[in-house]
Write a structure and sequence with these properties.
Blueprint: H1 2-23, E1 38-44, H2 47-54, E2 60-68, H3 77-81, E3 88-95, H4 102-111, E4 120-121, E5 124-125, E6 131-135, H5 138-153, E7 164-167, E8 172-173, H6 181-185
Parallel strand pairs: 6-7
Antiparallel strand pairs: 1-3, 1-6, 2-3, 2-8, 4-5
Helix pairs in contact: 4-5
């Protein structure tokens, strides 16, 4: 009997901590909740300069040059420049709304180009250069329309604002050589872009 107890004792004592561990509460892990990111799409003329400006705004995680609002799938730059596809040159912005609001991004949009010009920006002429906001939700639609209405009421521009506000269609990323055009070449924008105040 003594010999049997001596053999069972290690087993009994080894199981006790295991049973206790199974019933013990699981310690909570300190995990940060990933931010809820949103997208915004803006067309303000040549997308090189628009991407350059949005990429610098704190809270913007990415700004991608692309095409939206046209009639064909997988448009190329040549398709868009032919003025037959109906696409606009746009930027798809991914941002953290906890760091920058959609309203702020929309206000930047109106600051960086001339929204009274129709199908052009400066020397760039064609429907692909139209001023357009493609909204991704009813909330974005309301904000964009409110910002436009406020600027109109304040008579900020000498002419009516031509910016179109529409629900976001499918976005097609532009060719790789269009992405980060100015940053990769180490030059400042030389197209129509209206610089932010700190760059003037």
């Amino acid at each position: 009997m003594t010999k049997l107890l001596s053999l069972l004792t290690p087993i009994l004592f080894s199981c006790a901590p295991l049973a206790a561990a199974e019933n013990a509460p699981v310690p909570s892990k300190s995990m940060s909740t990933p931010p809820k990111l949103e997208k915004a799409t803006f067309g303000a003329g040549c997308f090189w300069g628009v991407e350059y400006q949005y990429a610098k705004i704190p809270g913007v995680l990415s700004a991608v040059c692309g095409y939206a609002g046209g009639k064909i799938d997988n448009p190329t730059y040549e398709d868009v420049c032919s003025h037959t596809s109906g696409h606009a040159e746009v930027i798809e912005v991914t941002f953290d709304p906890a760091k920058v609001t959609y309203k702020t991004l929309t206000e930047y949009f109106f600051r960086m180009h001339n929204p009274t010009q129709v199908n052009r920006q400066g020397p760039d002429v064609g429907d692909q250069y139209r001023s357009v906001i493609f909204t991704h939700s009813p909330e974005q639609q309301k904000v964009a329309e409110a910002v436009k209405a406020a600027l109109t009421a304040a008579k900020v521009y000498g002419q009516p604002i031509a910016t179109q506000i529409e629900s976001a269609p499918r976005f097609w990323a532009a060719e790789q050589y269009h992405q980060h055009h100015y940053q990769l070449r180490g030059t400042k924008p030389y197209c129509h872009l209206v610089p932010f105040a700190e760059e003037k």
